[in-house]
Amino acid sequence: RVHGGFFESTTDLIMSEEQPRPQSFAVMRNTHEAFRGSIKVMENYVKENNKGALRREWKQFKRALHVHAVMEDAGMFPLLNEVSEGAISKAGLEQEHRDDEARAKAVDKALRGGLAGLFAKKEQLVKAFSTWKDGHLQHLKHEEEVMMPIIPKTCPQPPSPPKLAKVFHDRIIPSAESTNDFVWFVGWVVKQLSTYGSTENPAKVATRVFVWGLQHASSPEQWQRYLPQVKANTTAEIYNYMVTDFKIEDPGTVS
Questions:
Q1: pLDDT tens by residue, 118-131
Q2: CA pair distance 238, 231, nearest whole angstrom
Q3: Distance, CA of 33 to CA of 38 (rounded, Å)
Q4: Could you give the CA distance from residue 45 to residue 84 in angstroms, rounded to a whole number?
Q5: Which of 193, 104, 99, 208 is nearest to 143 (CA)?
Q6: Model's pTM, two decimal places?
Q7: Contact criterion met (CB below 8 Å) for 197 and 203
Q8: Measured between alpha carbons, how far is 143 from 92 in angstroms, rounded to an integer?
Q9: Does the pLDDT at position 48 exceed 60?
Q10: How many CA atoms does the CB half-sphere of 122 hold within 13 Å?
Q11: What distance in Å separates the CA atoms of residue 120 and residue 130, rounded to the nearest whole number?
């Protein structure tokens, strides 16, 4: 079983829990897992018609989604288009972002504060959220299907974790930093993964894959800023596991 990597179709990059390797592009994949965890929480709030809790979770979700979308729109999509004769655009992934934003506005309307939000019918909220949720989950799946086979082509061949980490540092981290919210984003993703795990892995593994991959794509200065968010948003058990077994308190590895 692949543990959070982006490379299920690339034999020499598949990693196991017995011999894990840092996979920096798995930062993107495991962010998707953080989104899936948050969506399940919001589904329960919708069923309970708990608009207060849903509004708070939705606000945090959208803040994290904005950072991730910038990383894709300004970093991942152009990079992958370059090495795949425009496969990202041909698959319509940029348009899917715009469609997702449009569906999210209906959720915003159903959750709007004041009298309109207070007296909105539960059915309106259920319909808006369900429509957005189904579209968003399908979008995440589609992205993964399109992007995973292309990622190994982004670095000098043959691909390796250090080569891919350098590409992630040079092409994706700058777009993340441009949002001025990436440090917060790291903490949010870590908290989600530490609480809910991922589709295939328990919390400990899902969190480690994200954190270790990011460490290996970061400069020492960057990692010095990101690491406190990791420590503040995971459990002592998971943090100590990552420190002891994966040396996450060592400096970032990209110069």
A1: 555 788 899 999 99
A2: 9
A3: 9
A4: 41
A5: 99
A6: 0.91
A7: yes
A8: 10
A9: yes
A10: 6
A11: 16
Q: What is the CA radius of gyration of the chain?
A: 18
Distance, first Cα to last Cα, the chain: 32
Amino acid at 176: A
Contact 5, 14 (CB under 8 A): yes
- What would the pLDDT profile of 14-39 be if each residue is shown by its tens digit? 344 457 999 999 999 999 999 999 99
DSSP string, 93-136: HHHHHHHHHHHHHHHHHHH-SHHHHHH--HHHHHHHHHHHHHHH
Q: What is the pLDDT of residue 132?
A: 98
Residue bearing tokens 């974790």: 161
For residue 32, which of 137, 133, 171, 182 has the smallest C-alpha distance? Answer: 137
Task: Please report where in the chains the tokens 């729109």 appear, as a residue.
Answer: 73
Whole-angstrom Cα distance, residue 239 to residue 207?
9
- Rounded to whole angstroms, the Cα distance separating 156 from 148 reads 17
Length of the chain: 255
**For residues 11 and 52, what is the distance between their CA atoms, to the nearest angstrom?**
46
Residue-wise pLDDT tens digits, 51-73? 899 999 999 999 999 999 999 99
172-225 tens-digit pLDDT:
999 999 999 999 999 999 999 999 999 999 999 999 999 999 999 999 999 999
User: Which DSSP helix (H) or strand (E) runs through 246?
Assistant: helix 236-246
> Rounded to whole angstroms, how far apart are CA atoms 235 and 195?
9
